[in-house]
Design brief:
4% strand; cell membrane; transmembrane helix
């Protein structure tokens, strides 16, 4: 039985090329793509932080003050907002062609999360007061609604 020359016959395992002798194409790809990757990552992170800051500024209660005081409901609500803003941005980032895609869809995501807050406030009533009173059930419901809207928004962005 003849031995297999790994330099001539590349062996694949889990889709990864083993025995590749020239790593330069991979390194060149990394060097050419890294600046764009870092730019898109920075823009998406900036959009996420800005949207989260605007969300906290618009909501009637001070999330960080409540969280520092040990309010679980505020932490659940703000965590839901953070995830609700990040998921669609992640999908946008995956399909973006430029920085404007990220910024525009980040704005749309923020608007939809604010609508989610108002819709849950309408359904439950006194949502901000409930969060300030550490009513976890209201905060959990709000966080789940934010996550649901984020999933639907992400799917729409990806389509």
């Amino acid at each position: 039985m003849p031995a297999i020359d790994c330099q001539l016959h590349h062996i694949t395992a889990c889709g990864i090329l083993i025995g590749m002798t020239d790593p330069m194409p991979v390194i060149q790809s990394l060097l050419s793509g890294l600046p764009i990757f870092l730019l898109h990552l920075a823009c998406a992170t900036l959009a996420w932080v800005a949207a989260l800051a605007l969300y906290m500024w618009i909501t009637p209660h001070d999330e960080f003050a409540l969280i520092r005081a040990g309010n679980d409901a505020a932490a659940i609500s703000l965590g839901g907002a953070a995830i609700g803003l990040a998921v669609p941005l992640g999908f946008c980032l995956a399909g973006s062609v430029n920085v404007w895609d990220i910024m525009i869809w980040g704005s749309v995501t923020l608007i939809l999360q604010l609508i989610a807050f108002r819709a849950v406030d309408f359904l439950l009533g006194q949502l901000s007061t409930r969060i300030e009173a550490n009513e976890r059930s209201a905060a959990i419901f709000l966080a789940m609604m934010k996550a649901a809207i984020a999933c639907i928004t992400a799917g729409a962005i990806a389509s």
